[in-house]
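User: Is it possible to get a 3D structure for a protein together with its bound compound? The compound here is zinc ion. I've pasted both below.
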Amino acid sequence: MARDYYETLGVRRDATQDEIKKAYRRLARELHPDVNPDPETQERFKEVAQAYEVLSNAEKRRMFDMGVDPFARGGAGAGGGAGGFGAQGFPFDDIMNAFFGGGGGPQGGRSPRDRVRRGRSIKVRVELDLAETAFGVTKDVTFPTAIVCDTCHGEGTAKGSHRETCDMCAGRGEVSQVTRSFLGQVMTTRPCPQCSGQGTVIKDPCPDCAGEGRVRERVTRKVQIPAGVEDGTQIQLAGEGEVGPNGGPRGDIFLEIVQRPHPIFERRGDDLHCTVTVPMTAAALGASLTIETLDGTEQIDLRPGSNSGQVITLDARGCQHLNAPGRGDLMIHVTVETPSRLDEEQEALLRKFAELRGEDQPPGKFSPGHGNIFSRLRDAFGAR
Ligand SMILES: [Zn+2]
Ligand SMILES: [Zn+2]
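Assistant: Yes, that's possible. Here is the predicted structure of the complex:
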């Protein structure tokens, strides 16, 4: 239990305040959790901080010299009662703050801000035709990004020079202001304005990147778009985005697929839909139709007696499934066109036709509700 704070700090019993402070700083830098996070070192760090707290305070030091340990819990410590004042937090934190700012305590504490940071991710729009989304494609895409500065290789310093410890914060990355209050010292800390919290400064910056270690550039690269992507699909290219400041790791690229509208086909999922308009006579008599597909033209048979709203499905003529074998279908929606503006002969023929069919005085057929329309819509939206 008998701790010797002089021994902990490695100073003589008659050490001056200055010597105590110096000894503490030296140890604290070596043992600080940000440098040495292992539990044993942290325990030692805590002891060193406690030793400093006692020996740097004239009153506590005097008590310790008389054999009273302010940190001895539940004993005759200066705090008395429930644990010494050292365990309560704030005097201890104050010391931590005085040297490291913020957080306080071995688990808190900040070190200079990392000057190496990850680069930003880039979003790149890739406009594709329907066939390119359906079957995949290799594309050249061009986008602005940040790349490592060739001149300084990301260091940011001019040739032959190096980063130097910031003299405003002595490399701590932040500056503190101490004010006294009735609670003790109140510490406000903020990132060092001279080095932006990095602890080091560039006195002689690289002329090509102004010290940032990276330069902006438009680059063109080939990207492989897999088959089956669709409008809005995002493809992540991990670690291929902007280089971070000071040579930090690269962000990602997110390719966002934008599919240009196709003059004939509309895509729903991996199926394609199109509409073919046929004259009434073809619908009645049947016909062979030439149909455009992504794979070229194809002949399909329109059955005699076809109706508007009928759907002809061509299996596996749609888009490739993304990350799965197989393709969607091509659904051809038939629209029957009723002839208008008949000439005399055509009209006479149609009247004759109607007569033969007994349709010259049609009664009209009624169905409940809008059943007919609904079933057409159902066809149109993919019920097979
Ligand atoms: Zn440079
Ligand atoms: Zn600084």
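The two ends are 85 Å apart (CA to CA). The CA atoms of residues 6 and 297 lie 93 Å apart.
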